[in-house]
Amino acid sequence: MNTAVNLKILTAALAAKVPVPDSKALISTLASKAETFALISQFGSPQLKRELSLAKPNQTIEVSLQLEFNGHKVIYQSQEIGKIQILYKSKKNHSYFRINSAKITNIS
User: For the chain, what are the domain ranges?
Assistant: First the structure.
């Protein structure tokens, strides 16, 4: 998957308060990406928005935004953070991710 999709999935996981490995470093990395601030309003998490606003982008420790997909599982740094589910099918074949039963993100 491309970086924009990974960014969206990781932002959704943080907004849903999914335990993510090294979340402070991840928030710092996400704060350095302008796209994150456009995404955060979709998830209704003022706490995460504040954390991202206050985070100081750390150039020395850039964490990976790479996700692994094992079957229907979404894995970040060897930890399962969600699963892939098709909730409905439209003419455009949108796929959705359910982040550990909390938030749903359109990735198309």
Answer: 3-106
Question: Block means of pLDDT (10 residues each) for the chain, length 108 residues?
Answer: 84 89 88 86 87 77 85 90 72 56 46
pLDDT of 103 reads 45
Order of strands, sheet of 79-85, starting from the edge strand that comes earlier in the sequence: 68-70, 73-76, 79-85, 96-99, 103-106
For residues 50-65, one letter each, b for 16 or more C-beta atoms within 10 angstroms of the residue's C-beta and e for the rest, the string is: ebbeebeeeeeeebeb
Q: What is the CA radius of gyration of the chain?
A: 13
Three-class DSSP category at 93: coil
Instruction: Provide the 10 A C-beta neighbour count for residue 32.
Output: 14
* Cα–Cα distance, 28 to 65 (Å, whole number): 12
